[in-house]
Automatic annotation (TrEMBL):
Cross-referenced InterPro entries: ATPase_P-typ_cation-transptr_N, ATPase_P-typ_cyto_dom_N, ATPase_P-typ_P_site, ATPase_P-typ_TM_dom_sf, ATPase_P-typ_transduc_dom_A_sf, ATPase_P-type_domA, HAD-like_sf, HAD_sf
EC number: 7.2.2.-
Name recorded for this polypeptide: Cation-transporting ATPase
PANTHER family for the chain: CATION-TRANSPORTING ATPASE 13A4-RELATED, CATION-TRANSPORTING ATPASE-RELATED
Record's catalysed reaction(s): ATP + H2O = ADP + phosphate + H(+)
CDD domains given in the database record: P-type_ATPase_cation
PROSITE patterns: ATPASE_E1_E2
GO terms under cellular component: endoplasmic reticulum membrane; late endosome membrane
Domain of life: Eukaryota
Main location: membrane
Cation-transporting P-type ATPase N-terminal domain sequence ranges: 144-213
């Protein structure tokens, strides 16, 4: 459809971003609208209901495709609206050539249609897009243009917007508000009632009332009312909580700089480009803003999950034309104040206030994006749910066949048309059980409750089933596998002669004064807040080891070029013989995970000015003079990293004291440094780590480490934790970006524990084995380890190698948050079901991307994760997988049981329809309510099996074992019912007209004349009594109990059935009641249940048939369906190949003798490496078929 109108018919919004969406243009057509209205009337409201469920169908019915320029309706279903700038004419006299709207640098000006002064806009998921007339596409508004350079931002917005500019922007961009309305109860109620499931229930209830089947109809109504009430209550509570989360955001008073002074206004009136003036008071930021003057200390726990103060610096006024986000190697986020975070301190660079330009407003902000991810969660495309729809369609198809059969039988029997319609519609409610969705939900609710008891909280219950399929878990290292707190073990000083003796802090002796002591005292991002030193735990440990003190400088503090609000560190009374009165921290280049370092410019009180650097040792030495780096640097570093220590490098240089610090560039400060030594911190494994990883590995669940730490430290932790066995080799993968004429390259080297490599300038100071011989044990006898930089090069230039590498890649070090998310997505493309476990800091993107994200942080950032563990260790991972497997198996059990229950009733009713008979209301009620409903509630109570087995439950309903199980049991039921139906008619005591022919008529008021139709083969309108009816009902009812027993699986994924005491008790009571009914000759009870008396021998025959059915079903389930070895043999016999991408790649790698290519280098311009690789699946879809 789109090809006819070319590219103008559709477009992609937010291309390359997580919320990327495709839109299509449509135009409403009058005649189509008229036809739809006619359809509404003649369909008695069914057509609008279908359009409500499928909005796209409504657009296709009402509209014709057109270009986006001409569209008045856009799919995603969004109506195009117009913003009329003439509404501003009272306050701003606008003309088409007015200077305020003439600047084509701004998207909002390019969106204004002249001379009408109108703007076309759409709104998608709370974000407003305007039509750019020059580029003919919709573009997002509510944020500054990304192509502005740093200099242009200072120039255009450094003096603030005029009142007129602000009003135009406010009209086009909309208010700076994150409005989450509390949804009215009536809206929630209508939305829930119009759910297809409840509409089908309404149809069923109406049908049952027309047939006087009031009891079960009332029971279904009561259950539906309770279910709807609970759902509406939960949705209302979530709506209220989300509203409270954001309501304070819209009513913050802020000070805005105008070209003519300042103005105080409510934050909802802010627009992109406004200039904020930040005072020294604490405040919640109501928007995203770029800091252009001064500095701030911000609490970003809302984003990162950690309440560690973060220092923000001003965007430099550089003169290049590079977009401001790319102006330097420093992370641009260092200049951005994010919405929802708290400013706890401001530091002005001069006499003026701290100022920031509004970058994004409303739902475009960081907090708005978080709220939108809650309002519009990523859709899950799990195979089970697609199969469930197919399963229901199969039942509907079966019901259709039954309807045709019913119509034929009743029409040929001369029944009234009304009865024919009722009986035919009855078949739908029998073949498609209305209680199916409720029964499936029950298992997930029980699993969620069990998880809560284990301290695991779930905000997305549907993900619990997906957890049952997890086969790869990515772990962060620090705070997840290892203890969060770091202990300062010692420091290794260095001079030109090499490393000196280790200074241990455990002895209590203070570090002697020198540049090394100065670096530890001042090279950090700590602040004093309410008399307490706050900041990164590593910085706190390092500073406390010096026994120095910290304070803010007073007004009487004056040093040339030094701000009056500088931070001062000075020796405490505990220290002695320190010839320095203190050190003033003049400027900071805060730590960045991308840069792997931080630097400070300091000045001794009445002394020299210096620069200190701290960071990853391999990065720090790359900025040092080579002659200051000890020759045995690599060996010394490896000595500590192989023991699992966290190692930090320190360096310094002296600066000129006379110059102004503003004139110094970071490149100049961070050059020609002198290496000072290594800071050694101990980071031990958590006690729970090794046993949990051993349990996962024994269950064939692959663990992967994804960390921002040093590569060698990560490999050591992987070995100590058991993630990599001591006997297996680790192969280092080093990839280099293309440099000039040299293409990108990737090299494989064997990582050895005893040999030492020479010093280099890469992030790989590790032992490289020069032995070119291949490992003797092939296959999975090796693990790949790489840095984030190598992973990036590999994915960009060697995408054909990436899947092969990922098959055995276990350690990913120095990974940025974006690289973590990218890695998880690559694993998902290989059909792995990926879990991510992190402490919340820098892991939010990965937690969102994974099939199951497990946060060990209880901060607000855990909103990004479906699961949050109260216990800060990885024991939650196997708990979650066990419960997921149990919930998944329970879902399959319920599907199978509900299918068999409906098929048993379906077979029985169709057999009775052959004699124009049926089950009575009380017989239906007994099966539906007393048997099936109670079984559905109690069958899911089995807990998870305490041990993880080395295989997963099937992930699909259409897998051969499940289909075979259902089909065989349906066949058994069909044979048994037909046998009973035929044999009862062949009994010598059988009579089609006399239901007392088998037994003496009972005494009392129960007479033949009131109970029996006297015409052969005909029943009275209110009587269902017959020998066929009684036989079919007893066989069907007891068979429902038998099927529940057979399908209630225990080991290996759920606890045995006998541990579910309530379920066993229910089955016992139900079976006892049925046997009692079968053998009890109680006339009043039989009359009420429309049963007839049969000879005792026939009742025994029924028990024998049911017993044979039970034995057959149990034997088939245990010997065939649950026989995993048998299915593996069958798969091998038929040459079955798994459709999972990772299985194919594993097979390919195993059969490739030249893999892995040790001590070889591949280049990106080689033909065999440049080709692409065709593997791509939706993130939440897998074709994995487990036996």
């Amino acid at each position: 459809m789109g090809d006819e109108y070319g590219k103008g018919h559709h477009a992609v919004l937010n291309k390359g971003e997580e919320n990327e969406v495709e839109i299509f243009g449509y135009q409403t057509e009058g005649c189509r609208r008229t036809l739809c209205i006619v359809g509404y009337v003649f369909s008695c409201g069914i057509l609008p209901l279908v359009f409500y469920w499928r909005p796209a169908w409504s657009v296709w019915a009402h509209c014709v495709p057109c270009t986006l320029r001409e569209a008045d309706v856009v799919l995603l279903r969004t109506t195009v609206t117009w913003i009329n700038l003439s509404s501003l004419k009272g306050s701003v006299s606008l003309t088409p050539d007015h200077p305020l709207i003439a600047d084509e640098d701004y998207v909002i000006n390019r969106a204004i249609l002249r001379p009408e002064l109108k703007v076309r806009c759409i709104q998608v998921q709370k974000i407003r897009y305007v039509w750019n007339n020059s580029e003919e596409q919709f573009q997002k508004v509510g944020c500054l243009e990304d192509n502005f350079s740093a200099a242009k931002i200072h120039l255009k917005f450094g003096s603030g917007l005029s009142r007129e500019e602000q009003e135009i922007r406010r009209l086009i961009c909309g208010p700076n508000a994150i409005d989450v309305e509390i949804t009215p109860i009536w809206k929630l109620l209508i939305k829930e009632v119009l759910n297809p499931f409840y509409v089908f229930q309404l149809f069923s209830v109406c049908l049952w009332f027309s047939e006087d089947y009031k009891e079960y109809a009332v029971a279904i109504i009561i259950m539906s009312i309770i279910s709807i009430t609970l759902t509406v209550y939960d949705l209302r509570e979530q709506s209220i909580k989300l509203h409270r989360l954001v309501e304070s955001h819209n009513s913050v008073l802020v000070t805005v700089c105008r070209k003519k002074g300042t103005q105080e206004l409510e934050s909802r009136h802010l627009v992109p480009g406004d200039l904020l003036s930040l005072s020294g008071n604490k405040m919640q930021l109501p928007c995203d803003a770029i800091l252009i003057d001064g500095g701030c200390v911000v609490n970003e726990s809302m984003l990162t999950g950690e309440s560690i103060p973060v220092i923000k610096t001003a965007l430099p006024r550089v003169g290049d034309t590079v977009p401001w986000k790319l102006h330097g190697e420093e992370d641009y986020k260092r200049h951005v104040l994010f919405c929802g975070t708290e400013v706890i301190q401001t530091k002005s660079a001069g006499p003026g206030a701290v100022r920031a330009v509004v970058l994004q407003t409303g739902f475009n902000t960081a907090k708005g994006d978080l709220v939108r991810s809650i309002l519009y969660p990523k859709p899950m495309n799990f195979q089970l749910y697609r199969d469930a729809v197919r399963f229901l369609l199969c039942l509907i198809g079966t019901a259709t066949i039954g309807m045709v059969y019913t119509i034929c039988v009743y029409v040929l029997s001369g029944e009234p048309a009304e009865d024919v319609v009722k009986k035919a519609l009855d078949v739908i409610t029998i073949a498609v059980p209305p209680a199916l969705p409720a029964a499936l939900t029950t298992g997930i609710i029980y699993a969620q409750r069990r998880l809560k008891k284990n301290g695991i909280f779930c905000i997305s219950p549907q993900r619990i089933n997906i957890c049952g399929q997890l086969n790869l878990i990515c772990f962060d290292k620090t705070g997840t596998l290892t203890k969060d707190g770091l202990d300062l073990w010692g420091v290794v000083p260095s001079d030109r002669n090499g490393f000196q003796e280790v200074h241990s802090f455990s002895s209590g002796s203070a570090l002697p004064w020198g540049p090394l002591c100065g670096a530890m005292a001042s090279c950090h991002s700590l602040i004093v807040l309410d008399g307490t030193i706050q900041g990164d735990p590593l910085d706190i440990k390092m500073f406390e080891a010096t026994n120095w003190e910290m304070e803010n400088s007073g007004k009487d503090f004056h040093i040339q070029g030094v701000p009056t609000q500088a931070m001062i560190v000075k020796p405490s009374q505990k220290t002695c013989h320190i010839p320095v009165g203190g050190i003033a921290i003049l400027h900071q280049y805060p730590f960045s995970s991308a840069l792997q370092r931080m630097s400070v410019i300091v000045q001794e009180v009445d002394g020299d000015r210096m620069a200190f650097m701290k960071g990853a040792p391999e990065r720090v030495v790359s900025f040092c003079q080579p002659d200051t780096v000890p020759s045995n640097f690599a060996g010394e570093l490896q000595n500590y990293t192989t023991q699992g220590f966290r190692v930090i490098g320190l360096a310094y240089k002296r600066l000129e004291s006379n110059g102004h610090i503003a004139a110094l560039t970071r490149e100049k400060v961070e050059s020609d440094l002198t290496f000072l030594g290594l800071l050694i911190l101990e980071n031990r494994l958590k006690e729970e780590t090794k046993p949990v990883l051993e349990e996962l590995i024994s269950a064939h669940i692959r663990p992967v480490m994804v960390t921002g730490d040093n590569l060698q430290t990560a490999v050591t932790v992987a070995r100590k934790s058991g993630m990599i066995a001591e006997s297996l080799r680790v192969i280092l993968l080093e990839a280099k970006e293309a440099e000039g004429p040299s293409p990108a390259s990737v090299t494989w080297r064997l990582l050895e524990d005893r040999k030492h490599a020479g010093y280099g300038d890469r992030d790989s100071y590790i032992n490289i084995g020069e032995d070119a011989s291949r490992p003797e044990d092939e296959g999975g006898s090796y693990h790949f380890a790489m840095t984030g930089k190598s992973y990036q090069v590999l994915s960009q230039h060697f995408n054909s190698l990436l899947p092969k590498v990922l098959m055995n890649a276990t350690v990913f070090a120095r990974m940025s948050p974006g690289q973590k998310s990218s890695l998880i997505e690559e694993f998902q493309k290989l059909d792995y079901f990926v879990g991510m476990c992190g402490d919340g800091a820098n892991d939010c993107g990965a937690l969102k991307m994974a099939h199951a994200g497990i946060s060990l942080s209880e901060q607000e950032a855990s909103v990004a994760s479906p699961f949050t563990s109260k216990a800060p260790n990885i024991e939650c991972v196997p708990h979650l997988i066990k419960e997921g497997r149990a919930a998944l198996v329970t879902s399959f059990c319920m599907f199978k049981y509900m299918a068999l229950y409906s098929m048993i009733q379906y077979i029985g009713v169709l057999l009775l329809y052959w004699k124009t008979n049926s089950l009575s209301n009380y017989q239906f009620l007994f099966q539906d309510l007393a048997i099936t409903t109670i079984i559905g509630i109690t069958m899911s109570l089995n807990g998870a099996y305490p041990k993880l087995v080395p295989y997963r439950p099937p992930g699909r309903l259409v897998s051969p074992p499940l289909l075979f199980s259902v089909l065989l049991n349906v066949l058994f039921s069909l044979v048994m019912h037909m046998l009973g139906f035929i044999l009862v008619r062949k009994q010598p005591w059988y009579s089609a007209t006399d239901v007392f022919s088998a037994c003496s008529p009972p005494k009392g008021n129960f007479s033949r004349s009131t109970a029996l139709p006297m015409l052969p083969g005909k029943l009275g309108p209110d009587s269902f009594m017959s020998y066929e009816n009684t036989t079919i009902w007893f066989l069907g009812t007891i068979n429902c109990i038998i099927v529940a027993l057979v399908f209630s699986k225990g080991k290996p994924f759920r606890q045995p059935i006998y541990t579910n005491y309530i379920f066993v008790l229910v089955l016992g009571i139900q079976m006892g009641a049925c046997i009692f009914l079968l053998f009890a000759n109680i006339p009043d009870l039989y009359q009420r249940m429309d049963l007839v008396c049969t000879p005792t021998l026939w009742r025994v025959y029924l028990i024998v048939m049911l017993a044979v059915n039970l034995i057959l079903s149990l034997v088939v389930e245990e010997a065939i369906i649950e026989n995993r070895a048998l299915w593996l043999i069958i798969k091998r016999s038929f040459g079955y190949q798994s459709k999972s991408q990772y299985r194919k790649w594993q097979s390919m790698v195993a059969n490739e003798p030249a893999w892995p290519p040790l001590n070889q280098t591949f280049y990106s311009d080689q033909p065999n490496n440049a080709r692409g690789v065709s593997y791509s699946n939706p993130v939440f879809e897998s074709h994995e078929e487990s036996p």
